[in-house]
Write a structure and sequence with these properties.
Layout lengths: L15 H17 L3 E6 L6 E5 L4 E2 L10 E5 L5 E5 L2 E4 L32 H16 L5 E2 L2 E7 L6 H11 L4 E7 L3 E7 L2 E5 L4 E12 L13 H20 L6 E10 L2 E11 L8 H9 L7 E2 L1 H11 L10 E5 L5 E5 L3 E4 L3 E7 L8 H19 L1
Antiparallel strand pairs: 1-2, 1-9, 2-6, 3-5, 4-5, 4-16, 7-15, 8-19, 9-10, 10-18, 11-12, 11-17, 12-14, 13-14, 16-17, 18-19
Helix pairs in contact: 1-3, 2-7
């Protein structure tokens, strides 16, 4: 099946307005009929909508054994599966199928299942960063990733379908999604970080993404300079992945990077890793590495157990699905799972946005606060 450009504006088939309209029609039909929804756009592909009438099921088997569908995991590693009961692909406006019984609602009335959390104050967050630095200086910790929350009032007339389409157009290299379920409410995500990918040829891929600075549109990516803190933070994430390969005695992998990549309004340092699972006779590598990698040092810290313990002690809020992972599994013999960064949980007229920063011994609390504010802008620049 031919795929349209990742940028809807360049497509002769779909306009932004028409795509948002068709998404709203399907989404409201799904909610009217008590279906769970996973709407997503992989980088370089077209938007796809998965629907399921049955409840999400908690996963207790390797991902290779799951039926085609969508995975949704929280920070604590609890994983749920939504089967692909129905699939709608938004490729060609002339051939899109709409529900027989069209919803009369004009806006997407998404699921809301919980109450919003309060914003993290600057004083609280900088204090949390300082606590992280102090622990690093006096323990075996090398890095901790404390997070914070912003409670944002959505603009009048906010349209979730339009926000999804605008994110697709603005961030063509990101994974864009809306997960709206009866169990966990509604989450909007625009994440640059691939956790694991398995294509239909058996090629496994993951990445080490860390280091953050504001993108300067006048500067070429290969000319971007990085400070020692960012370079070392990204190197920690890369070493963590390589050590996991060593742990399972896998030595045949291709490493590329680090290189500067743009993710919306931000630049990051990125190293990619690829493995031919057929050549290495490691057919279950995806499931094995998923268990070893999550939560990555980019969203948790190093060593993992010590970082997790500190995060549980110093963070007052619930991360929920922030820094978990999500994505389509076993669809057309491909799986693509992404770390749930740059995300928000939606409520009626409000949203909780989440962001975090990698803290090392040479971190500055004020700079980490500024970095997290920049990360919020990935979504705020779109939704207003």
């Amino acid at each position: 099946m031919e795929k349209v450009s990742a940028n809807i504006k360049d497509s002769s088939s779909y306009t932004e307005e028409r795509l948002a309209k068709d998404i709203k029609i399907w989404a409201n039909w799904a909610k009217d009929n008590s279906h769970n929804i996973a709407l997503y756009r992989k980088p370089g592909s077209h938007p796809c909508l998965l629907l399921a009438n049955q409840p999400l099921s908690k996963v207790d088997q390797p991902i290779e054994e799951l039926s085609a569908g969508f995975l949704f995991a929280n920070f604590n590693g609890e994983l749920w599966h939504m089967p692909k009961e129905q699939q709608v692909e938004f490729i060609d406006v002339e051939h899109i199928t709409l529900p027989v019984e069209l919803s009369k609602k004009t806006n997407w009335e998404y699921y809301v299942t919980s109450k919003e959390q309060a914003s993290t104050s600057k004083a609280d967050y900088t204090n949390t960063v300082q606590q992280s630095i102090d622990n690093i200086l006096h323990s075996n910790l090398n890095k901790v990733v404390p997070s914070k929350i912003k409670l944002h009032h959505l603009p009048k007339g906010f349209c979730l379908a339009s926000a999804f389409v605008k994110l697709c157009n603005t961030y063509p290299t990101a994974f864009i999604s809306v997960v709206s379920t009866k169990e966990f409410g509604t989450w909007l995500t625009a994440t640059p970080e691939l956790l694991i990918k398995l294509d239909n040829k058996g090629i496994f891929e993951t990445m080490a993404l860390a280091g953050t600075q504001k993108n300067d549109s006048s500067e070429q990516l290969h000319d971007v300079a990085w400070v020692d803190k960012d370079i070392e933070e990204q190197a920690m994430v890369s070493r963590y992945i390589i050590n996991r390969f060593k742990e399972i005695r896998l030595r045949e992998f291709i490493e590329k990077g680090p290189m500067t990549v743009q993710a919306g309004n931000l630049n990051h340092l990125c190293t990619t890793f690829k493995v031919d699972t057929k050549a290495t006779n490691f057919q279950n590598l995806g499931g094995v590495m998923l268990n070893l990698l999550h939560p990555t040092s980019a969203v948790c810290g190093m060593p993992k157990e010590a970082a997790l313990a500190l995060i549980a002690k110093i963070e007052d809020h619930d991360r929920k699905f922030y820094t978990g992972y999500l994505g389509p599994v076993n669809i057309n013999n491909e799986t693509s799972l992404y770390v749930n960064l740059r995300c928000m949980e939606l409520f009626k007229g409000k949203a909780n946005l989440f962001a975090g920063a990698g803290v090392t011994a040479i971190s500055d609390p004020e700079k980490e606060w500024t970095e997290t504010e920049l990360k919020f802008n990935t979504l705020l620049n779109i939704i207003g």
